[in-house]
Amino acid sequence: MSVVTNTTTIGAIEAPSRRNTELALLAFAVVIPVFAYLNVGLAIDGKVPAGMAGYGLGLALLAGVAHLVVRKWAPYADPLLLPLATLLNGMGLVLIWRLDQSPRLIATSMSRYNSFSPDAPSQMMYSAIGIAMFVGVLLLLKDHRVLQRYTYISMAVSLVLLLLPLVPGLGTDVFGAKIWINVGGFSIQPGEFAKLVLAVFFSGYLMVKRDALALASRRFMGLYLPRGRDLGPILTIWAVSLLILVFENDLGTSLLFFGMFVIMLYVATERTSWIVMGLLMAVAGAVIVGSTASHVQSRVAAWLDPFECLETATDPNMLNACDQMTQVLMSFGSGGILGTGLGQGNSDLIGFAANSDFIFATVGEELGLAGVMVFLLLYGLIVERGVRTALAARDPFGKLLAMGLSGAFALQIFVVAGGVMGLIPLTGMTMPFLAYGGSSVIANWALIGILIRISDTARRPAPAPAPSPDAEMTQVVRP
Amino acid sequence: MNKPLRRVAIFCGLLILALLLRDNWVQFVRADELNAHPKNTRVRIERYANERGNIIVDGKPITGSVDSKDEYFKYKRTYTDGPMWAPVTGYASQAYDANQIEKIEDGILTGNDDRLFFDRTLAMFTGEKKKGGDVVTTLSGAAQKAAFEGLGSKTGAVVAIEPKTGKILAMASTPSYDPTSFAGYSRKDEKAWVALEKDKSKPKLNRAIREIYPPGSVFKVVTAAAALENGKVKDINAATDTPEGWKIPLSRVPMKNHASGCADASLKRALDISCNSVFAKLGDDVGRDKMVEMAEKFGFNAEQFTPVRSSASVYDKTADRGGNALSSIGQFNTATTPLQMAMVTAAIANDGKLMKPYMIDELRAPNVDLLKKTEPEEMSRPVSQENAQLLQQMMESVVTNGTGGNADLNMDGVKVGGKTGTAQHGAKNAKRPYAWFISYAKTAEGSPVAVAVVVEDSAGTDREDISGGGLAAPIAKAVMKAVLKTRG
């Protein structure tokens, strides 16, 4: 007779893998966009769109591959993340395809560039690459803790990525924001990838330094003030954020990175004083830049009262910003509660960037208040699953990384949706998965991949303990 | 690390909540304001997104829609005989909004009206294209044509009403414009619009209802009505006590007569030859307040809605005695729209009953279902039936014995009554006078038509020749003839 004594705290109870739940949800995530696609076709042409089968099969294929990979290589992963991302990506494709068919946007493009090419096919391709990236992350990254080894390499890489657009000849200035680089005919937004790499760096760095940052401090007026030398990193990040803002004209990225850092710093050290300092520094930075950079001023003017500013502004840039903002607001307003229906709105009146920065306005106009709230809740759910993953993760590095990524995701949603709805000044970033743009889709699929990997590790039942030598049967010699 | 994690999670939740609240604010609370914003082109896009319904005269549309092959506004409005019908239809322009019937019945014409909700829903299921409903007018193509061609190159306006019902049969205004010329939003449309805006002869002004003119002698019928109603004159053939050279009250100036033989002239005779002194004295005898009361019963001092809004005609409520005496012969501050004078004539022709004038007969859904029919509506009874018939006698005498001979139709069984007017205006009457003529035709079954014609400052006519009888009466005659002919 043998007695097995369990010496680990976590039992080897078989946790449900929830893969079938994921599969069922994925079916919805494919069927809903397919119906949306049908809806657009019927609304615009009055007949079933020709590409519907192709679109449906393509989306189902991508989702299926992703699901199989998760089933095989991350069997305990969170079941919601993949369906949510698939649904958003699929709806994004439908919205972009819908805007592709706007005669107004086609005419504008024809008169400006003498050519028009639809964006939906390339977005489909980017989505495929994105899912390939997702698969790649799951296949190559067997354990997220491996990333700890690359802490300082990540720092270097993220700095390079962030500053690439400033390299003469490589960076391109598109409508005032220097956030693109041109490589072999493709334009890439390195900032989207920098988001991921930077999160890795922050996690690795903070995991090592958290005790020093948290404990070696003096108490002053109820706040724990860090030592001067520990202030180094936050000052550096702040400076880099400001540099991005000033030289790349990219308010959103700058805000996103700084916010992500402050959140992770707070989580790592559990010191509220970091939040206070972060906020103070953000305000200081905003004031400095706001009073000097003209493009920030025009965004602020367009935010305060776009209709008023449209009447009074004289600067063409400001006029442009205000006009765009009024168009976006009217687009939201005309949607009302239930919206005009897919394909039946006039959100293309926004013109430039209607399918990227302002795609959320199309949601607002054609799906209405109800649709926008659904989308916001879908994004909210992704964030929630991310935070849950962070809570469940057993290692501090995984916790920090999951929190950093989902925090950045939440901030991005807030900054973009808040910008187009006039809650905060417009920053010019893209709605993850929804908006047109290769870098964004690919990077966000990688983000979901990393979250899935961490959640798989977090939810994976502990391996059955190796038989302990102590537990071996002791021979009892009977007298 | 879990405590700060939970706090950050709450923070992220608050971010999403802020977005949800903001969305409700923009899409629910501010939705109406944003939708109605003048910068919002969606209203215009919607107006031209589908084939617009038509405005119909005599069962035939006088408007149309063409596919403009444009990516903003799909359909463009066209007008048949645009200049002739412009005072009725108004315009619907992609760049310059719309007015008159095109604007008032926009909901029906675009098909967005709530009354068409059922049609829209049905069309959604049957897969039919959305279409606008039609507006059927009360106008008569023949009468309108006679009016418009009668005015010709002269500046002026004509309004014809069916006295029994108040149906407007003709509404012409010259110089006119072609609403088709600026129905789009291209450079060409802009040019046409700007040219019209700058035109000194104001072609876009609807003189039939939006311009007020001094009525001059045609107002004397109102004064005559007031004198009869208030018992100041009992017998229209009896001599009145009016000396030649009757002095205007509060002044030393005698009232000037253009006609001779006005001393103590009877009311009938005074109307025949248009004696100023007799009517000024009668107005003075009736008194200002009673005069105001009578004028207002005919519709003065109020805007009329046909349903297109007209300007309010004026009879001065605060004039002193002298002013009132002058007002009584259509001078001083008295001013009237051609519509108003047509209403006065119609009320007299209809034996004293004034019907509310209207020009939209029916509203029809795209499937020709009747949505609304305008029922004739009595507006007031300015004069009793007996007095109305006395007035008719006098007005018919004007045509047979007096200044209105040019309006005589010479048709069997048709009696014509009328009154001429030559309204002086401008400082010291220096400007060319306005020629007025009001008239009605009457058969045994009652009166089918009452017309008011005003011809402004007509170039090419010698000043001495400008008179209501000479310039305006033939136009009124043509319109009446057209109406009588279409009645068979």
Brief write-up:
Chain A is mainly alpha-helical. Chain A has helices at residues 19-45, 52-73, 81-100, 103-113, 120-140, 151-163, 190-215, 232-248, 251-269, 272-292, 294-304, 306-312, 316-335, 359-392, 396-420, 438-459, and strands spanning 171-174, 177-183, 186-188, 217-220, 223-226.
Distance between the termini of chain A: 20 Å
How would you write the strand order of the largest sheet of chain B?
2-1-7-11-12
Oligomer type: heterodimer
Number of contiguous helices of chain A: 16
* Gyration radius of chain A, rounded: 25 Å
Helix fraction of chain A, binned, reads 55-70%
Q: In sequence order, what are the helices and strands of chain A, one letter per element?
A: HHHHHHEEEHEEHHHHHHHHH
Number of helices of chain B: 18
Mean pLDDT of chain B: 86
Q: Rough shape of chain A?
A: globular
Reported for the largest beta sheet of chain B, the result is: 5 strands, mixed
Spatial gap, N to C terminus of chain B: 98 Å
Instruction: Give the number of DSSP strands of chain B.
Output: 16
**What is the strand arrangement across the widest sheet of chain A?**
1-2-3
Average pLDDT of chain A, rounded to a whole number, is: 86
